[in-house]
Design brief:
Elements: E1 5-12, E2 17-19, E3 21-24, E4 27-30, E5 35-38, E6 53-56, E7 63-65, E8 70-77, E9 82-87
Antiparallel strand pairs: 1-8, 2-7, 3-6, 4-5, 8-9
Length: 109
């Protein structure tokens, strides 16, 4: 997408525990043909620097999942960034500002 927006999907937890992040892959449709590049594990005959991705939840407290309970996974996006969140309710999907704070970037000591 070339604009700010958000999407959601509903899922059920298969076990109880803490949600620390989201592991995901992405696909890129190339040109106006049937060529698609995917970062899904072992989907391409070769993969170099584009691999699967991990989005780590930095908010506290972390989201607690209960086995068999349904949750909403939200994806917020703009032209250059992705952000995820979890909820047990269905709030209206509104684009949000995606910012990276200097506190979110690991510091080399």
């Amino acid at each position: 997408p070339t604009h700010d927006g958000c999407n959601k999907t509903l899922f059920s937890s298969i076990q109880s525990g803490t949600a620390h992040g989201i592991l995901f892959w992405w696909e890129l449709d190339l040109w106006d043909s049937d060529h698609t590049y995917s970062t899904q594990h072992a989907k391409q005959p070769w993969q170099d620097h584009w691999q699967q991705c991990l989005f780590v939840f930095t908010h506290q407290p972390l989201f607690q999942l209960q086995k068999g309970t349904s949750y909403h996974l939200w994806l917020y996006h703009n032209d250059t960034r992705l952000s995820f969140s979890l909820s047990s309710s269905t709030p209206h999907c509104e684009p949000k500002k995606l910012k990276i704070s200097h506190n979110d970037v690991p510091q080399n000591n």
